Amino acid sequence: INKTMVLDPNERLTASQACRHPWLHQSTNIASSKNLHRTISQNLLQRQSQRANSTRSTKSVNSNKSSYSLRSDRRRVQPEDIDELHRDPEVQAELASLGSHHSNCS
Fold first, then answer.
1. What does the pLDDT look like over 43-60, one tens digit per residue?
2. How deeply is 95 buried, as exposed, middle or buried, from its count of CB atoms within 10 A (0-12, 13-18, 19+)?
3. CA triplet 47, 33, 27: central angle to 5 degrees?
4. pTM, entire model
């Protein structure tokens, strides 16, 4: 990924070179794809949680929760939250588009 973001076009990895990279050609199966989707889902949920917590903390200075408690809430993503996110049609469409981008590189 870093090699595709190099400013100098002569040193930058092209899209076709990136698609031929061994990382993309490793034997993949449904489980590894699902784990990738789960990781993406966890990141989405963590960002949503961070936004909600920062909004909540700015609105309420005298919160009953300590700052440590708020930080630990942000880190915890429950499996049922991820499963619920996977049932969301918009998220399913995003994950499908990620899968199609990956298959276009083969």
1. 888 887 787 776 655 555
2. buried
3. 140
4. 0.27
